[in-house]
Amino acid sequence: MTLQIRKTLSLEEVEAAIALRTEVFVEEQGVPLEEELDGLDPQAIHVIVLSDDRVVATCRLVSDGRLVKLGRMVVAADFRGRGIATRLLAFCDQEAAALGATEVRLAAQCYVIALYEKSGYIAYGEVFPDAGIDHRWMSKQIA
């Protein structure tokens, strides 16, 4: 399996990333579409994982100077369990550092906190609901 991880190069790729997010968050997890589409996509950096020409994973970065918020990370159901999310996180950490960030922050669904911890993220604060799903804030200091 050959995978390519990179930033999107076209509006069509951003739309494919959003379509995958809709499939996972809205259709699989029941998140209301209006909550998934929060208006931040136009200002975000979208990162995709391609298998051939198919977007099989994605996430986005929203920069606020020294802080980058990573969000909307998903992996297609038939590609889960292959280490793709870990590779995607490593790529995003590098992108955040290139933007001049010193910290990456994300709101993790509680059932995947261990995935982020393996990549050096630290959970903090109380559990909170987002779109009816329990989350915790996590952060990672980067170079």
TrEMBL record:
Keywords: Acyltransferase, Transferase
Pfam family, one: Acetyltransf_10
InterPro entries cross-referenced by the UniProt entry: Acyl_CoA_acyltransferase (IPR016181), Bact_Acetyltransf (IPR050832), GNAT_dom (IPR000182)
CDD domains in the record: NAT_SF (cd04301)
GO molecular function: acyltransferase activity, transferring groups other than amino-acyl groups
Domain N-acetyltransferase: 3-143
The keyword Acyltransferase belongs to this UniProt entry's keyword annotation: yes
Protein name: Unannotated protein
